[in-house]
Amino acid sequence: MNISRGFIVMGAVYLVVGIVFGSYMGGSGDHSLAPVHAHINLLGFTLMTVFGFGYRMIPGLGDGTLPKVHFWLHQIGAFGLLLGLFLMMSGRVADTTIGPIFPVLEGAILLGAVLWLVGVVRRA
Ligand code: HEM
Ligand code: HEM
């Protein structure tokens, strides 16, 4: 799979979801899930789009296995975190139930970010 394309396409998917979410918040006047909306757009659209353009524009950055590992860590971590945050903040799942899972998902995103750091230090 092309990592750059994967990040850019997934970023665009999160953008559409984030805008729909934001429009619903604006229309309903219920801003209680604003952090979920913000991070769909930031962790989803903004970060994935930056990664996607980075892997395309910086020569050699997308080579090897580490970018693929970064891609999947970020996809799984971001999706899990955003879904978990939505379920918790909307009161569908108790924070005591879902809370212990968050550090694992955050760890996946963080590890992906460290791989990105290693890549840009080497190649940028
Ligand atoms: C048509 C598109 C969008 C609509 C209708 C929308 C709507 C909203 C609304 C209603 C709020 C709550 C404001 C408040 O409670 O004070 C909000 C907050 C926010 N939005 Fe959006 N938004 C849109 C796109 C975006 C995009 C593209 C981004 C980032 C790339 C973004 C980032 C944020 C952030 C960071 C917050 C603050 C969240 C917080 O206070 O916890 N939004 N947005
Ligand atoms: C694993 C990754 C991340 C975690 C665990 C995380 C966690 C948090 C938490 C706990 C808050 C406070 C929410 C509140 O006060 O209700 C917050 C706020 C915020 N985060 Fe993140 N964040 C992450 C990634 C990001 C990224 C990648 C961006 C930007 C590209 C970002 C931008 C923001 C902004 C702008 C706010 C402030 C929103 C506001 O209060 O208006 N975050 N984040």
Could you characterize what this model shows?
By secondary structure, the chain is an all-alpha fold. It has one domain. 81% of the residues lie in helices and 0% in strands. It has five helices and no strands. The chain has helices spanning 3-28, 34-57, 66-89, 95-98, 102-123. 28% of the residues are buried. Bound molecules: protoporphyrin IX containing FE (HEM) (2 copies).
Quickly list its features.
124 residues; 5 helices; globular; binds protoporphyrin IX containing FE
Supply Rg.
Answer: 16 Å
Content-based structural category: mainly alpha
**Count of β-strands:** 0
Mean pLDDT: 97
The first-to-last residue Cα distance is 22 Å
Give the names of the bound compounds: protoporphyrin IX containing FE
Shape: globular
Estimate the strand proportion: under 5%
Short note summarizing the structure:
The chain is mainly alpha-helical and 124 residues long. The chain has helices at 3-28, 34-57, 66-89, 95-98, 102-123.
Blueprint of the fold:
Layout: H1 3-28, H2 34-57, H3 66-89, H4 95-98, H5 102-123
Helix pairs in contact: 1-2, 2-3, 3-5
This protein binds protoporphyrin IX containing FE (2 copies).
